[in-house]
Structures are given as structure tokens and as C-alpha cells.
Specification:
Low-confidence stretches: 113-117
Shape: elongated
Strand content: 5-15%
Number of strands: 2
Radius of gyration: 20 Å
Number of domains: 2
Order of helices and strands: HHHHEEHH
Largest sheet: 2 strands, antiparallel
Mean pLDDT: 79
Distance between the termini: 19 Å
Helix content: 55-70%
Number of helices: 6
């Protein structure tokens, strides 16, 4: 599954290849949804490895390009992102004009997966 996913083969085609290889749906020990869930877990693990470092490096670049850029990163003991804040010129102008901010729930996919499983 992981190789097919890395090669860009759709999950539907990957699942169908397992069905053909085993001789039918009834001979598989997993469903298409089980496979989709497993691939999504694997994708998240890959994304979480080094995610804080990647964000930090991007913010360093942004600070070099714009001295008014501000960022703060909070990590857990394992180096995974907990909270991220940044403010650039555009965001500051929007806050000044509208008095509002945007917020992203970075646990959405993890929580969603836990609800489905």
C-alpha cells in the first residue's frame, strides 16, 4: 500500500489490485475503508516527522524577507508541533481593518480519524 501511495497510484486502484490478487472481496481480511484509514495514518506519521523543523525553517526565511514578520512555535517533548502563531504584514492589516484572526485546528485529521476508527 505504502509503495503504491508513494508512486501516486490511487487508493481505489490499489485496493482493486488486492481484490484481483486474492481472488475476490470475500478473500481479503480488510475493507477498502480499512486500507484508506491505514494510508491516512501513514501519511500523517510522515508529515509529523520533522513538521516543527520545517515550519521553523520557513518562518526564519519569512523573517529574513520581512523584518516585521513575527512567529512563535510551541512543541511537545518529542518535537511535535503543539501551537504555532505568526503575523505578517497582510495579517496585521486584516486585523486592523476587521479586528479578527484566523485559527486552524491542527488536530482535525487526527481527531477525525479517531472518530471514524
Amino acid at each position: 500500500m505504502a509503495l503504491n501511495d508513494a508512486a501516486g497510484i490511487s487508493l481505489g486502484k490499489s485496493f482493486n489490485s488486492f481484490v484481483i490478487e486474492k481472488g475476490g472481496h470475500s478473500k481479503l481480511s480488510f475493507t477498502k475503508q480499512d486500507m484508506i484509514n491505514a494510508v491516512h495514518v501513514q501519511r500523517r506519521l510522515i508529515l509529523f516527522q520533522g513538521d516543527a523543523l520545517a515550519v521553523e525553517q520557513h518562518f526564519i526565511k519569512m523573517t529574513e524577507e520581512d523584518p516585521n514578520f513575527y512567529s512563535a512555535i510551541q512543541q511537545d517533548q518529542e518535537g511535535k508541533l503543539l501551537n504555532v502563531f505568526w503575523a505578517d504584514a497582510r495579517g496585521r492589516a486584516m486585523y486592523r481593518d476587521f479586528g479578527d484572526i484566523g485559527s486552524f485546528d491542527t488536530t482535525f485529521l487526527c481527531n477525525r480519524h479517531n472518530d471514524v476508527a
